[in-house]
Design brief:
The protein is of the alpha/beta class and about 300 residues long. It has one domain. The chain is built from 11 helices and 9 strands. A hairpin with a 2-residue loop joins strand 6 and strand 7. The termini are far apart. About 40% of the residues are buried.
Length: about 300
């Protein structure tokens, strides 16, 4: 077996090097600072970003406006946009601090509603397909599942530079999460195999990163969501569930519900569209319950781009 290829730093652009060092610093702070100090500091970073990053602020405001059904300059939208930046700041601290938490603290950190929809299928060897929006902190929930002894897998976007991608892979592998790179050869078979092995397969599904997604209606407008979750729901025996998580002062609250499956027709394309729309329908109330916890900092709806 050959040794893994070491990323070549001389292939990186200046922007990529800066991005790597920025995230590496965030990771170091997350592992070093105690929770009260770390969360306060990173919320402050989020507040500063809200005031300084005008283009990003406009994007987030457009997303929040769509969810809230108000104009982008509405006071409620402005307040929620500021809260979203603060929440996202805390998200980065929390993500890198998770492995520093004791197992008892990790178990106590999440208030679950519906966790039996994950644990019961896993206990009988059935794989679970967990479909989520970018809401709250999936990494915290996966760390909680790791402490409970649940085997897991997920898909990760292939970031550049390579050592930045590897940084995130190492964080997830610390919780024994099998990481499958988005766009990797044979990804469909790898995901189906994870489910067949009785794993919890977590997929973030409110952003289409490939350009080949399925158009759905979300908050009264059209956006594309990835087809993968629907295809896996059709082609495997997974128990398919939806999850949303939300930050609390000291941890998180997570809601898990079975996905309502449409009546299947046998037409895989039509069935995949119907399942994906049902996923969007399930996401909508979860996001609406706390829009500031929705960490989508890219234009969610193309027509709303600033």
């Amino acid at each position: 077996m050959s040794a893994p290829e070491v990323p070549r730093i001389d292939d990186e652009t200046l922007r990529e090097r800066l991005a790597y060092h920025a995230y590496a610093t965030v990771a170091w702070l997350g592992r070093t600072l105690p929770p009260h100090t770390g969360r306060a500091l990173f919320r402050l970073f989020g507040t500063l970003a809200f005031y300084l990053a005008s283009r990003q602020r406009a994007v987030v405001a457009a997303n929040q406006a769509r969810v809230l059904g108000r104009p982008s300059d509405d006071p409620l939208v402005v307040a929620n946009t500021r809260a979203a930046f603060r929440s996202y700041g805390r998200y980065w601290y929390d993500t890198f601090s998770l492995t520093s938490m004791s197992h008892d603290a990790m178990l106590a950190a999440i208030d679950w509603d519906g966790v039996e929809h994950i644990l019961e299928p896993i206990s009988r060897g059935q794989g679970v397909l967990l479909v989520m929006p970018h809401l709250g902190n999936w990494d915290a929930c996966s760390r909680n599942m790791y402490v409970r002894g649940v085997p897991m897998a997920t898909v990760a976007e292939r970031l550049r530079p390579e050592r930045l991608y590897q940084l995130f892979v190492r964080e997830r592998e610390a919780s024994e999460v099998q990481v499958i790179a988005l766009g990797a050869a044979g990804i469909g078979k790898a995901l189906a195999a994870a489910i067949a092995d009785g794993k919890l397969l977590g997929l973030l599904a409110d952003r289409d990163l490939t350009g080949g997604g399925i158009p759905v209606q979300l908050f009264g407008a059209t956006l594309r969501m990835p087809a993968g979750p629907a295809m896996l729901a059709l082609s495997t025996d997974a128990a398919t569930v939806i999850m949303g998580s939300y930050e609390t002062p000291t941890g998180w609250r997570a809601i898990v519900r079975p996905l309502a499956m449409p009546e299947l027709t046998g037409d895989r394309r039509a069935d995949a569209r119907a399942i994906t729309q049902n996923i969007a329908d399930a996401f909508e109330p979860l996001i609406a319950a706390s829009p500031a916890d929705w960490h989508v900092f890219q234009p969610a709806w193309p027509t709303d781009e600033a």
